[in-house]
Amino acid sequence: MKRALVTGGSGGIGSAICSRLGRDGHHVYVHANRGVDAAREVVAGIVAAGGQARGVSFDVTDAGATRAALDEVLGEGPIQILINNAGVHDDAVFPGMSAEQWHRVINTSVDGFFNVTQPLLMPMIRTRWGRIVNTTSVTALTGNRGQVNYAAAKGALNAATKSLALEVASRGITVNAVAPGIIATTMSDGVFDAETIARLVPMKRAGLPAEVANLVAFLVSDEAAYITAQVISINGGMI
Q1: Global pTM?
Q2: What angle do CA 174, 6, 111 make, to 5 degrees?
Q3: ∠ CA 70-177-101, rounded to 5°
Q4: Cα 188 to Cα 24: distance, rounded to the nearest angstrom
């Protein structure tokens, strides 16, 4: 059994990843910041299915609070599977984008990646086995109007993925990014109607959170031990 932490574990994609990792026999720490009640439901579902899970709550942009929470988690043993899934949208065309909108999105994805990953890395290295998966976005690969901040944040994560993978490759740790396209979650509800999806996606449907979770589950498995430094997009053929 490996110990896994999923940030943003209360959201649509995050909860699907947590549930899948729980079914695969991992002990799952389901992280949430505002969605604490939703995270409790995810934990309850994993436990009801016979798995092991518990919730953790902190703001990934707050370095001190994050470190304190992670120290408590590490007191129970090293994390060997880390899914950096926390992220936010705050869309606006760039000429009208506020500094607050820019920094909120950048800080959550980029500072959040550092604040969570860096403290967990040495304990992971000592085990000589680890899997890090960063959830990014097809927007980082193609661009999207009104999402300069989001594209910049997720593009930075793609670049960090490749560099970190090179640093830890000899230690039995892989680092990859999963870049979803349009996925059917509450975050995408009302943003993409059926006509828009049919126009943008060759498969003419939104992806399912479980399909993203299936990819993540493969990347954290022993079968994916030779896959690292990759950005893998799951988008129904958008690119």
Answers
A1: 0.96
A2: 80
A3: 70
A4: 27
Q: For 10-52, give the secondary structure using H, E and C.
A: CCHHHHHHHHHHHHCCCEEEEEECCCHHHHHHHHHHHHHCCCE
What does the alpha-carbon distance between residue 90 and residue 104 come to, in Å, rounded to a whole number? 8
pLDDT digit string (tens) for the chain, length 239 residues: 999 999 999 999 999 999 999 999 999 999 999 999 999 999 999 999 999 999 999 999 999 999 999 999 999 999 999 999 999 999 999 999 999 999 999 999 999 999 999 999 999 999 999 999 999 999 999 999 999 999 999 999 999 999 999 999 999 999 999 999 999 987 666 667 888 889 999 999 999 999 999 999 999 999 999 999 999 999 999 98
CB contact at 8 A, 103 and 53: no
Distances in Å between the Cα of 85 and the Cα atoms of 110, 118, 197 are 11, 15, 23
Out of 29, 58, 113, 150, the active site residue is: 150
Burial 184-208 (b: 16+ CB within 10 A, else e): bbeebeeebeeeebeebbeeeebbe
Long-range CB contacts for residues 54-57, cutoff 8 Å, separation at least 24: 54/29, 54/30, 55/29, 55/30, 55/31, 56/5, 56/29, 56/30, 56/31, 56/32, 57/31, 57/32, 57/33
Helix (H) and strand (E) counts in the chain = 9, 7
Q: Which tokens sit at 5?
A: 């932490």
Cβ atoms of 203 and 184 within 8 Å: the answer is: no
226 as an active site residue: the answer is no
124: amino acid identity, one letter:
M
